[in-house]
Amino acid sequence: MGGRSSHESDANFKANARDALAKAAKREPEKISMSLMVNGQRCALTIEPRMTLLDALREELALTGTKKGCDRGECGACTVHVDGRRVLSCMTLAAMQHGKRITTIEGLERDGTLHPLQAAFLERDGFQCGFCTSGQIMSGVAMIEEAKAGWPSAATADLTKPFRLSDLSNTEIRERMSGNLCRCACYPNIVEAVADAAGRS
Ligand code: FES
Ligand code: FES
Asked: Is 78 in the pocket of ligand 1 (CB under 6 A)?
């Protein structure tokens, strides 16, 4: 008798668990409403709280210039600017960027004129397949601004004096761009392109 009742309660438990799982599977995921200022335009979004900024840009706003490489913070292909600072959009929750200013590769040109770093990538042949290129350029643009603002890097030899744009050696550029990987190994040309654009800014 005792064995049967324990068998029945086990069967009931499994049936209840199956019902709960089936109900959970049918439930619509909770969504939130938010907005972003993307490339100068306000964009309203209704998204799941777990959505990354990268997926929001690509899947919700069709801004596919920002690339998904590793989707785990290792390659830099997804780099965009949030309020002027470079971030990895695959590691950034969209919901936490409500009201912020986002710039993607699509927002760099002005009145049909490429950003100086975009032009330098063309002149210096800074890409082959191009998959990493938008991330490289977004990172490079922010990096030049960081150098202009006097931020040192791990390659800066003398931390006792303010960093100046003229201190931006190739070693500095390599260090500051080290979060952006290129499987086509265009690194020498990328460094030249960034140095050109820094010299023009
Ligand atoms: S896709 Fe974000 S770092 Fe690779
Ligand atoms: S140009 Fe191909 S991955 Fe960089």
From this structure: yes
Contact 100, 82 (CB under 8 A): yes
Strand partners, 52: 93
Q: Residue 4 has what pLDDT?
A: 60
CA distance 143 to 147: 6
Contact 35, 45 (CB under 8 A): yes
Domain that holds residue 88: 32-107
* pLDDT, tens only, 98-138: 999 999 999 999 999 999 999 999 999 999 999 999 999 99
Q: Kindly give the parts of the chain with pLDDT less than 70.
A: 1-4
CA of 104 to the centre of ligand 1 (A): 14
* pLDDT at residue number 1: 46
Atom of ligand 1 nearest to the CA of 69: 1
E strands within the chain? 32-38, 41-47, 79-82, 85-88, 101-103
CA of 111 to the centre of ligand 1 (A): 29
- Say whether both 132 and 195 belong to one domain: yes
Question: Are both 48 and 86 inside the same structural domain?
Answer: yes
